[in-house]
Specification:
alpha/beta; Rossmann fold; Arc Repressor Mutant, subunit A; nine-stranded mixed sheet; four-stranded parallel sheet; 42% helix; 15% strand; globular
Amino acid sequence: MNISPLQKERLQYEPKLPGMLRHGISAICVKEGEETQSVANQDQIKALFPNTYGKKEITFEKGENTSAAKKQVVGVILSGGQAPGGHNVVTGLYDALKATNPDNVLYGFKNGPSGLLDDDYIEFTDEYIDQFRNTGGFDIIGSGRTKLETEEQFAVAAEVAKKHGITAIVIIGGDDSNTNAAVLAEYFAAHETGVQVIGCPKTIDGDLKNEDIECSFGFDTATKTYSEVIGNIERDANSAKKYWHFIKVMGRSASHVALECALETQPNICLISEEVEAKKMSLSEIADYIADSVCKRAANGMNFGVAIIPEGVVEFVPEFKTLIAEINELLAGAKADEFNALPTWEDKYAFIEKGLTPESMAVFAILPQTIQQQLFLERDPHGNVQVSLIESEKLFSALVKAKLDERKAAGTYNGKFSPLHHFFGYEGRCAFPSNFDADYCYSLGYNAFMLIQYGYNGYLSKISNLSKPADEWVAGGMPITKMMNMERRHGEDKPVIRKALVELDGKPFKYFEAHREAWAVETAYTYPGAIQYYGPSSVCDITTRTLALEKGE
């Protein structure tokens, strides 16, 4: 296999473990904490998870290993979108499993949860696993978005596990995947299959976190990757001095990525979806907010700037959310076929005008035609607008241009506005993991096997104290049900892990809020540069600004 010099070096990197996991498998014991309850809807969650609800949080410590000695056959699944470090979760799991007993077996189910249902797997060997240490991507076994949520699927999973003598399944995924892990764990317990389920917290969006899960893996690497390129663009903008760059970054439901990138690079503008919703900002108000920065900088001779836009921001604009709901209703059932059969955009526009309320039509009318048409692209499986297809970076630059044209006509603006557009998404999902993510993920996988060895089911692998050096990290586990609440999904109340949105009274946002007025006018850019893998710890092992601020550092 041809590999780059960096990959060759990274294959040799030895990830750091929390102190209590370095004593050797035989010298790790369990300290049990308090019984837990779900974050909300306790009675409903307890009723749905009678076998796995209310269990105790646990911490691993140095001491005699009292777990029962038995051969372990473990299956691992990568679920959902890629995140840097996923390979190290698998290698950490493998190393702990083999260190405990060389006869232990690790199966990798291919292409996500469907691999478990289809009994499509590989058995990991030293030779195979060593090719993927400290590398990005999920190509070790592939990933997928099949949901494990029906009784029929659970029954198939139980049969596949029984066929191979599987004692535990580790699901590496985000909030939806770990919700599925909790439901599967409950099924296995209720049917006395003897199979345990352990989850690992993955998502570059950063919205799988709470008082226990300080950070989901992949967030560190992805935001550092985006911030490097944003910093490069800022330096280019400050060199050329003639372009406004509108940069959309990943984050459909939460703005953690946008906020972290702003803290890293200090752009002129960064929208925070949660603030847009809290202030009930209209599209026009957002455009005016950005245009104010453009005008103030132009008055100082700076016809350039950088604006960061979260991927899902339009869904947080109340009037836009109402527009989307009306469009979904407008095209429900056979009406979609009627609309699609219309020959021209003019005919379709008339159909839309007749079907929307005057308020929503007023919003629709101010959108650029390209954005209007994007709202009527292919629907998702539930018949809804695919908001992720909307080029919000182009939407806001067009709205800002319209505002500037009005101001120019009124004689209050006399600058030049030349927008350029970028979307940073896939670029960050499979990068070489930072030292932080390489260490964190390896620890999550190693720790997951300790949870298996001690017989826990329906638990999430948990590593905390993450803002400190790795030898001070704390390893343990928490019941997945602790993170759950009931939410309305597709017309039904479902138990799901609560997403963590940006907290507007949290320290990261407050720091941003205190500085953004100056950043909007000044050129205060910072240039993070590329992720560093070798050199002083102060550079190589640095954590995110978000985590540092949350921990008061």
